[in-house]
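About this split. The held-out portion is used to measure sequence recovery: a designer receives only the structure tokens and must propose an amino acid at every position. Recovery is the fraction of positions where the proposal matches the reference. Here is one held-out target exactly as it appears in the evaluation file.
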């Protein structure tokens, strides 16, 4: 699913909700999936348009290289991304996010801008009772 979306172009909130609803509907077959929200800091107007775009592209490439080709990676705002890891436990996703954060911290050493990230993680299984809207809000509100 990774290649189904242009991660440089945000998609509508309704499309994100439909995508998450599809995962929620299929959770009984999959048994588990984990959602992560990534917020990128330091790539907006203060770094200039093309510089900000370049930093975002570098960070997007770090994320793409750290996740599986079966994972879903979509942009939902200028600095916000949703990742869905099907069949993947929170602990595994947490390790992936730590790796991504370390690689982005390494980019900071090469850049005059603070292009750090914050992220939230939420595991969903067949016992989870949540709708798509609430799931997205929860993962966004629990960033570290």
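Reference sequence for scoring:
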């Amino acid at each position: 699913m990774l290649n189904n979306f242009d991660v440089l172009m945000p998609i509508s909130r309704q499309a994100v909700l439909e995508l998450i609803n599809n995962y929620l509907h299929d959770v009984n077959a999959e048994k588990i999936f984990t959602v992560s929200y990534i917020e990128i800091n330091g790539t907006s107007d203060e770094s200039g348009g093309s510089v900000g775009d370049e930093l975002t592209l570098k960070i997007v490439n770090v994320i793409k290289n750290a996740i599986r080709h079966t994972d879903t990676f979509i942009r939902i705002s200028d600095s916000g991304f949703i990742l869905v890891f099907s069949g993947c436990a929170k602990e595994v996703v947490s390790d992936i996010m730590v790796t991504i954060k370390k690689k982005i911290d390494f980019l900071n050493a090469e850049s005059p801008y603070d292009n750090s990230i914050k992220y939230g993680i939420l595991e969903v299984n067949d016992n989870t009772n949540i709708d798509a809207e609430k799931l997205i809000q929860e993962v966004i509100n629990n960033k570290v």
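Annotator remark: The chain has a mean pLDDT of 84.
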